[in-house]
Design goal:
Low-confidence stretches: 1-5, 8-23
CATH topology of the largest domain: Rossmann fold
Strand content: 25-35%
Number of domains: 2
Radius of gyration: 19 Å
Shape: globular
CATH class of the largest domain: Alpha Beta
CATH superfamily of the largest domain: P-loop containing nucleotide triphosphate hydrolases
Helix content: 25-40%
Structural class: alpha/beta
Largest sheet: 6 strands, mixed
Length: 296
């Protein structure tokens, strides 16, 4: 990892669109190890299909960003990976286990999901909220017996919120609360971390702070990270691999420098624009010009 940029260190190159390599969604996992595998996954709500035959492999230790327009299926795919939803067809594997066959508590021992927003927690301290992440491992009786365990202490320290441990959560700023929620997810002590728009409602400073923390923790803990991001600039900078969804399908999959093109801006995000290269970090930089007419 390059410390001054906060960008993830790249792993084995992925084949991007037009590169002559593997088709979108069929990228081989580094070293042959797959942390998550979606196999021909389809899912929908009554009268509204969301995912249509998604094939996607996430290698152990990867940091992957999911991008695409609202409603393309990004958050739904995360919830399927976390075992909170079951596919209408196909399956999602966590290692060798079918996520759809796991109980929610069993899935939570394998995958931590940080939702876009959390419910209000009036009167709860940072320490108490982070302890909620231990429910899957310890159960209700274990939560009552012990005030804190090593996983909680480590999560507080790793997310940089230990000094706030006894402060009420509702006294913190939005960026501080997001770091506390990240600590709660870390307290689950899983090897897979799923983040659904972790920078939503944050100002630019706190967006960079949260994403930099995710990159650092991924490296220090050896995590597999999949995060939904709306900001393509952040995705191109902080992730080592981008997966773009369009109409419930994988439209592009590869290294940011291969995937982020004017064709992606137009075909996936619906905007005309140009793509350059950051002179220091080397990641793609987008210059969106104007929205394109919606397809019928």
């Amino acid at each position: 990892m390059t410390e001054h940029t906060g960008r993830a260190a790249p792993v084995a190159p992925a084949a991007g669109p037009g590169s002559g390599g593997a088709p979108a969604g069929e990228r081989a996992a580094p070293g042959g190890a797959a942390a998550i595998r979606a196999e021909d996954v389809s899912f929908g709500y009554p009268g509204r299909p969301v995912l249509r035959g998604v094939d996607l492999t996430i290698g152990a230790g990867e940091l992957v960003a999911l991008v695409g327009l609202n409603g393309c299926g990004k958050s739904t795919l995360l919830r399927l990976m976390a075992g909170l939803l079951r596919p209408d067809s196909g399956r999602v594997l966590l290692g060798a286990e079918d996520a759809g066959h796991l109980t929610r508590r069993a899935a939570a021992r394998r995958v931590a999901l940080l939702h876009q927003t959390g419910p209000p927690v009036p009167g709860m301290t940072v320490r108490q909220l982070v302890r909620q992440g231990r429910y899957a491992a310890r159960g209700p009786l274990g939560m009552l017996r012990d005030a804190e365990d090593e996983a909680c202490r480590r999560a507080l320290a790793d997310a940089g919120v230990r000094e706030w441990a006894d402060r009420p959560v509702d006294s913190l700023s939005g960026g501080e609360r997001q770091r506390v929620r990240l600590a709660m997810a870390l307290a689950q002590d899983t090897r897979i971390l799923l983040l659904d728009e972790p920078t939503t409602f944050l100002d630019l400073r706190h967006q960079l702070e949260v994403l930099g923390t995710v990159v650092r923790l991924r490296e220090e803990r050896g995590l597999t990270v999949v995060m939904v991001l709306h900001d393509l600039a952040h995705a191109a900078r902080f992730a080592e691999r981008l997966v773009a969804l369009r109409d419930g399908r994988v439209a592009a999959d590869g290294l940011p420098r291969e995937v982020v093109t004017p064709a992606l801006l137009a075909g996936v995000l619906g905007v005309a624009g140009r793509v350059g290269t950051d002179p220091e970090g080397g990641w793609p930089v987008c210059y969106p010009d104007h929205p394109l007419p919606l397809a019928d």
